[in-house]
Design a protein that fits this description.
292 residues, mainly alpha, 0% strand, globular
């Protein structure tokens, strides 16, 4: 994996970055930066980041959905050491622009069952046509609704601004009013990725470690992209774990989990298209290199 032109700070240098960090930008939630949008390679548009009509409802009622606004701690307060660390990490990871890790983060902007299934190709050992695993796709799509609902409550409670608002540092997606006006804490992408990783680990426990490593990278890609603070991603993993504990107690979810298991067993038992070894090498390198 190619390394950043300016090596990311190590732990010994993080305090220096924190002390050099200015105060958090405070402004209207409608604030929008007009600077560079990063490299010429465009990430998937926001329209591909919408919930599809394929899953009209999730598994949990609003009453049964864990209240992440109560479970999660508040995001770091302004001018706190934790907020300064978040800001230092955002500044340091801008150095990844143009590297293989930046390319992986750009790829990871796409969400939803089909995108994550493709992202898990290296773990699965083959690419899977989503039309061949309808029960697995239904499971992922319905769980996505639950993740989105749970995350939305916390986002609206805290209304945290995204890290790129108010500065011109590069990010891996196009800057837009819609993205700037959406809230940052916790990360919906990272929560969905972690929940999907836990689902896949349940379906194939022999590869649980690999699925969760790839899901960790998927969440960290939001930090590399510059669209989330690291604490957003950490909170998302906690929230997704809480949600999964409730989903696993739901009879309908468990029934669909078994149908999805049969889907995977049938497809993986045959010959499938192998994933691109270059992509797998990129993911493996990212997993071995700390974010900072």
């Amino acid at each position: 994996m190619s390394r950043p032109t300016r090596a990311p700070v190590r732990r010994a240098a993080l305090l220096t970055l924190i002390l050099a960090t200015g105060p958090l930008h405070i402004g209207s939630v409608h604030a929008q930066s007009s600077g560079s949008s990063g490299p010429a390679i465009a990430a998937p548009s926001l329209e591909k980041d919408k919930l599809t009509a394929a899953a009209p409802e999730g598994y949990l009622s609003e009453e049964a959905t864990p209240n992440l606004a109560a479970i999660l701690p508040p995001p770091p307060a302004g001018h706190s050491a934790a907020e300064a660390a978040d800001r230092a990490i955002y500044n340091a990871t801008r150095a990844y622009q143009g590297t293989a890790r930046w390319a992986l983060a750009t790829n990871d902007v796409a969400d939803g069952g089909a995108a994550l299934l493709e992202d898990y190709a290296c773990v699965l050992g083959q690419r899977i046509d989503q039309t061949r695993v309808p029960d697995l796709m239904r499971l992922l799509d319905r769980a996505r609704i639950d993740v989105a609902r749970a995350t939305r409550v916390a986002k609206r409670r805290y209304r945290r601004l995204r890290p790129f608002v108010g500065n011109e540092a590069p990010i891996c997606v196009a800057r837009s009013p819609e993205l700037a006006d959406s809230f940052s804490y916790p990360s919906g992408h990272a929560g969905q990725g972690w929940a999907y990783g836990m689902i896949m680990a349940s379906l194939m426990p022999e590869k649980a470690t690999q699925f969760l490593v790839r899901s960790r990278l998927y969440g960290e890609s939001r930090v590399v992209c510059g669209v989330h603070w690291l604490s957003d991603v950490e909170a998302a993993r906690t929230g997704a774990s809480a949600l999964m504990s409730v989903l696993l107690a739901d009879a309908g979810f468990r029934a669909d989990l078994e149908r999805a298991r049969a889907d995977l067993k049938r497809v993986l038992g045959g010959e499938g298209t192998k994933p691109d070894p270059t992509i797998c090498a990129r993911e493996d390198a990212a997993a071995r290199q700390p974010l900072l």
